[in-house]
Design goal:
38% helix, PH domain-containing protein, Niban-like, PH-like_dom_sf
C-alpha cells in the first residue's frame, strides 16, 4: 500500500504540538466553564420544577432563624426547559430553607402567592458574581 512509517518527533516538533495543544485547551476552557455552569443550572432548574412526586428531604441547618424570616432576596435568571428561554424572576429564601419565586418584587410585596417554591437542602447560597466565579473556578481546578 505504500504507507509511510512514523518516526519519533524531534524537540522542535514536540514543542510545536505542545504549544498548539495548550492554545487549543486554553481557548476551549471558557466554553467548557459556561457549559458546566449551564448544566449545573439546568439540574437546579429540574429540582425547582420537579416532574415527579417530590421526595422528602432532611434539612441539616445550623440556622436558628424563625421559619418565616427573610434570609436573602434578589433576582435570578430562571431557565424554562419547555421554551428553552431564560426569565428573570424575583426569589426569596426564608428561614425554613424554602426558596420561593415570583414574577416581580412588587408581586411579592403585595402578598401574591409565589409562582413556585421548593425546600432546599445541601445547597450553597452564593450572593455575588465574584463569589459565584470563585466557586466555578474552584470546581474547574481539578479538570
Amino acid at each position: 500500500m505504500g504507507g509511510r512509517y512514523s518516526s519519533p518527533m524531534d524537540g522542535r516538533q514536540r514543542r510545536y504540538l505542545r504549544g498548539r495543544t495548550d492554545a487549543t485547551v486554553k481557548n476551549f476552557i471558557p466554553y467548557y466553564q459556561r457549559q458546566l455552569a449551564t448544566t449545573f443550572l439546568r439540574r437546579v432548574s429540574k429540582e425547582l420544577d420537579p416532574q415527579d412526586k417530590p421526595a422528602l428531604q432532611l434539612l441539616q441547618s445550623k440556622l436558628q432563624k424563625p421559619p418565616d424570616a427573610l434570609l436573602h432576596e434578589g433576582f435570578l435568571m430562571q431557565y424554562n426547559g419547555d421554551t428553552c428561554k431564560w426569565k428573570k424572576s424575583y426569589f426569596i429564601l426564608l428561614g425554613n430553607c424554602t426558596l420561593e419565586w415570583f414574577d416581580s418584587k412588587e408581586a411579592q410585596g403585595k402578598g401574591y402567592k409565589p409562582r413556585g417554591s421548593t425546600t432546599l437542602s445541601g445547597y450553597l447560597l452564593v450572593t455575588s458574581l465574584s463569589e459565584y466565579t470563585r466557586l466555578i473556578d474552584s470546581l474547574c481546578q481539578g479538570l
